[in-house]
Fold these 3 entries.
Entry 1:
Amino acid sequence: MNQEEFKRRRRFMMEEVGEGNIVIIASAAEKNRNRDVDYPFRQDSDFYYLTGFAESNAVAVFIPGRQQGEYLLFCSEFDAQKALWEGVHAGLEGAVEDYGADDAFPIEDLDDILPGLLENKARVFYPMGRDSELNHHILEWVNTLREKSRSGIRVPGEFVSLEHVLHEMRLFKSSQEIAWMRQAADISTKAHIRAMTSCRSCQYEFQVEAELIHEFMFHGLRSPAYPLIVANGANACILHYTENSSRLQAGDLLLIDAGAECNYYAADITRTFPVSGRFSQPQKLLYQLVLDAQLAAIEQVHPGIPWNRSHEIAIEVLTAGLVDLGILSGAVSELIEEEAYKPYYMHRIGHWLGMDVHDVGDYKLDGQWRVLEVGMVLTIEPGLYIPKEDTSVAPQWRGIGIRIEDDVLVTDSGCEVLTDAAPKSIQEIEALMQAG
Ligand code: GLY
Ligand code: MN
Ligand code: MN
């Protein structure tokens, strides 16, 4: 792993935090699934962002300007038995040699060492939004210090959210991060192409899921970035459908929301295509409308443009289109005002993308939508979902769910669609599926 990247992040973070202060952050915890089996472990994104250290049971401490070392890692000591049963772990030596810590200590010594490190520090930066166990320990360490404090020892008086610093950093992607996101995007687009070309040999949604995962793993990415959605027909109208257990139906559309994770960076792609390889006329009309909205929204992605502009444009295109198709009736501006589109398009245009699929970073600054800047990555994913029981629309539209989602990098000249290689025009999809 590229240690320079992690070193650069730590340096930047410590400059933001400033001397005289301390940062404490814990790894994710293992989660039991049943009896002796745990869920696959995935490191906490903020912890990994700073350390590149993928083990559980670890705490990183940063003390900007400390002469004896600024970066301390508390982790498991090397244990031959543990290595035999669970595999390689860094141990204290590895923490220093391979992960760039200035010093490393056994995790069991945390309670003995931490109060001393808090001495004379003004502010403690730690992740406030989660990990109640760490929050609890920090209070205990501060109280221990307070009890022991002789005159002249200062006890930290301010507790500051580390997220505030880290999440602003994570919002802007470095060239290394973009390279990892590009790889996640490339392999995920291959998976969508494989799903389109193999769909007709599948009987169930989960068999298409298997094709997607095969492609991720075959190209070296072990994990999806989130539970995959493979939704036939009206299942696509359930936004977080992950059962993936229905039979594929030849006359239906199939909505696939699938992205892989590469070195902790997510891709997030949705494509919707006909199970049979040919769109019906109503499917074609609704699909083209969503695609028009998506293309118009992507056109808005440009440095200096407010984040929300894409959402507003998509709503305009979708509402006008729904009127043209007779699904809504009235004046477009009034329908937008009344949010008449909401029963059919109920989510926002997208989200920041990075280590977390719904990535960190503020969407508003001082109450205003923030403007896009070079290095941000976001998704653009409008959709239309016509409930099958909605008797207010003509039967031909009912039970159709469509979303088209791409990952977009903001660049100097506008934007780059990282996931462009996954076909999305009606012609391209039909041609690929006929050939497949
Ligand atoms: N796959 C989650 C999302 O599209 O937001
Ligand atoms: Mn998304
Ligand atoms: Mn998605």
Entry 2:
Amino acid sequence: MKVLVVGSGGRDHAIAWKFSTSPRVSRVYVAHGNAGIAGTAQCVNIKTIEEMADFAQKERIDLTFVGPEKPLSAGITDLFQSRGLAIIGPDSKASRLESSKCDAKTMMRELSIPVPEFENFSDPQKARDYVRNVGYPVVVKADGLAAGKGSLVCDTVEQAEEAIRQIMEDRAFGDAGQRVDIEKRLYGRELSFFCFTDGYTLVPMVAAQDYKRARENDEGKNTGGMGSYSPHPWLDDALIKTIMSRVAEPLIAGLREKYSIVYRGILYLGLMLVESQNEVVPYVLEINIRLGDPEAQVILPRLRTDLVDICEAIVAGDLKKIKPEWDPDYRLCLIATSGMTKGKKGWYKGYPDRYKIGLPIEGVDRIDPDCLVFHSGTEIDSSGRLVTTGGRVLCIVSAASTLEGARQKALAEMEKVAFEGIYYRKDIGLQ
Ligand code: GLY
């Protein structure tokens, strides 16, 4: 069969790679891909959802899998379904769960799903009054899509006021900052939890630990993710049961019954596990409508079941027949980012702040073939060199029977990669 993957980042590279390992898949196309993805699949330079639907019809694509949230929010699933094309990813109505943090939190509160105390604001002055009076540290979140950078964690009232100014008045994330969701800051253990769902049945995946902060020891700004590993040490059967019964199942049933939303595809719950009176409460910090980046890079290599079979079951509404099998060995993903460099007018601070692009990358060909390499921001320049094009550049995914073994391996292999200003966290996988 022919598969089309939509996306151009590291997660999308991992999805394309996974499909390429299926004996049922003869060809994988990626719209629009990057230099690394071109080594795994055939990249197609199309960018609008209409072009993608036209391509899928013309090429008789059997299955399309959408990596990022933007095309989902733009209605790619509605468009493909209207043309009878099989696609994995929630429709535009369900996509509100990620494209509006405010609406998602309100729906979850109405469905009695544990969420931090929160209020939503479209007036910056009212938001400021709230953070001055609320009496606890908060997280200020841009309502709309902000590439994983729109949540500002604040220790003080002054920081919260600054976050409101940046998001709502300076529009650091554009129109995503028309409204803000201001939440009580929770302290506990953060966990990314993923399920496949056909809108009725939920099948949990293995969990992954993501590292969102730019600097070691979880300091620095929030990023899209600096690394990840799986399996997750906290996720045992009892915790899976708690998350399923308190969050995932009431959410999917409630969306259907209360809001007429049949949520099909990938459900990604960003959770804070908080111990309270001898029980663990999984509070939902965010919902995403897709696989995580860089969580997909460590989850998909562990999946032994054919992803095509799972996708077909989602499309057919027959997911209850799927019992996925997982490799128990650890996978660890280490991301190389565009770090600090000197420009003509001074220093670039590096991802997630400003960074230089077009820098030649050396050493990727020397990475041990036992590791996977997924590219996020690379291209081949006019001289035929592999160069950087993004903040997150590429990642190395190692495998080992222990987390420390996987960590050492990924770090040793990353030593072989070089580009000006390369930066990666050396504490990914350190507990
Ligand atoms: N790793 C965070 C995300 O994919 O949103």
Entry 3:
Amino acid sequence: MSEPSLYGAAAAAMAADAICAHAGSVTPVAGIILGSGLGGLAQRIENAVAIPFAQVPGFPTATVVGHAGKLIVGALAGRPVVALAGRFHMYEGHDARLAGFPVRVLHALGARTLFVSNAAGGIRRTFRAGDLMLIRDHLNLMFRNPLIGTLEPGDVRFPDMSGPYDPQLAEALRQHASSLGIALQEGVYGGLLGPAYETPAEVRMLDMLGADAVGMSTVPEVIVARAIGMRVAGISCITNMACGISMHPLSHAEVLETTTRVASQFEQLVETFVAAL
Ligand code: HPA
């Protein structure tokens, strides 16, 4: 028998066992990944059991400011969820397989719906810092793929990517946003490796390629989710206008400042979404 591969299905099953040993057995209606500065949602989770990433087999410790690095098991709007406050970025030196690994763990815990969120720079001129953007599609400009390597049991080798973000879940998010009085933008998320922010020339290129927002995460997670048959919904928090569109230098502090400003809208939207799942 061949060795089980790193960050594959067997490793995810082991991580899920360790999580259940801490938190009891759970069948989440959704797995939620909270982007930079958006971890405040964790406070709305009731009966929460928080497990530091360091205690999850296969997880390295999160290193980015604004990312708590915790997995939280509990109830949101009365529904069982598992949330990750923090994620693994390729700019930290991680392999694409590790960037997608938490999704395998959420799936091993029983989640069949994945909600992803991130901080992103706005490219479309009509966007403003503080907007929430429904992710309609993405561009994988990381030029890495988390599925490269041995085919994992349960994976589709060549997953269809014609609808990576589930249209029905997207429609639900539109309706929830509208009933909450939250203006929801929509667009294509361009995923780059980072960690340097883009140059103005790169932002012009991304604009021509069809990206409405740009960030450094999410894409590997969504690819893994589609390969294992999970439905995906996603929201970007437009924390700043991208370089060259905004004329002032960009900083991670600004990104976190904006997420703090819109955290409550974001949290209400996710909570309402989960309540209706
Ligand atoms: N570019 C890339 N990633 C980001 C940005 C940006 O402008 N803002 C927040 N994350």
